[in-house]
Every structure is written in C-alpha cells, then in structure tokens.
Amino acid sequence: RKDILIRKRRKAALQEEVLTMREKMRSTLTQKDSDRFDLKQDRGGIVDIEFLVQFLVLLNAHRFNELVTYPDNVRQIQALSETGILDEKVAHLLRRIYLVYRATVHRLNLSEKPLTVPSGTFQDLRQHVDKIWSFYVNP
Fold first, then answer.
1. In whole angstroms, what is the distance from residue 94 CA to residue 79 CA?
2. CATH class belonging to 2-136
3. What is the pLDDT of residues 30-69, one digit of tens each?
4. Are the C-beta atoms of 36 and 118 separated by less than 8 Å?
C-alpha cells in the first residue's frame, strides 16, 4: 500500500483524474432536491474534503512519507499541515468542518434519517470547502 501511495505523480494528470472521478460521482450521487444538502455527496460536503485530502496526499507523499502513516482524514489533514502543504488555519478549518459534518451524519444515522439537511444549513462551511477545493484541486 505504502509503495503505491508514495509514488511520484504528475500534478496535471492527478488533477484531471480526481476532477473526472468527482464529477462522475456528482452527476450520479448528488442531491437532486435543491432544498436539501447531502452531507456526503453534494458540493462542499464530506466527499469533497476526502477527495481533496487524498489529492494532496498522493501529490506530495513522495516527498513526505509521513503523509501515508495514517489512513484517516483527520490525521492526514494534520500531517498536511505539519509538512507545510496546508496552511495551519486552512487545516484547522477543514478538520473542524469535517468533524461537524461527521457528527451530523452520525446523529442522522442514529435517528435513521437521510443524510441530508436543509440547503441553507452549513452554507458557510460548504463555501469554505468549495474555495479550498478550487484553490488546490481546480484552480
């Protein structure tokens, strides 16, 4: 696993791969009801954070092997910050948003409800994720 993750990658090719895969997922899995926000699949949600983290890890793991030490997003975000790939404030914001989303998903799962909230919920968090995504993955 580690050997594959630390392989050097061309940024443009990796960006294209990630963008294509994410757009394909969005076209089939995103919330069709514009009055609801799907915490996992919609723009600015959990999957965008996970794709962003994986993109940055794959792009930089050949220089910083410690990026592949942990498989979870929270610790990978921390490692991206510690290596200087992510600004500390950006990393803190991404971690906070990710944990807020995950806590909400957990609560909804326990109540056996769909993983959606009213579209205005988390609007500011979604915009932050979208800006960070655009900066790193789709400039």
1. 13
2. mainly alpha
3. 767 789 999 999 999 999 999 999 999 999 999 999 999 9
4. yes
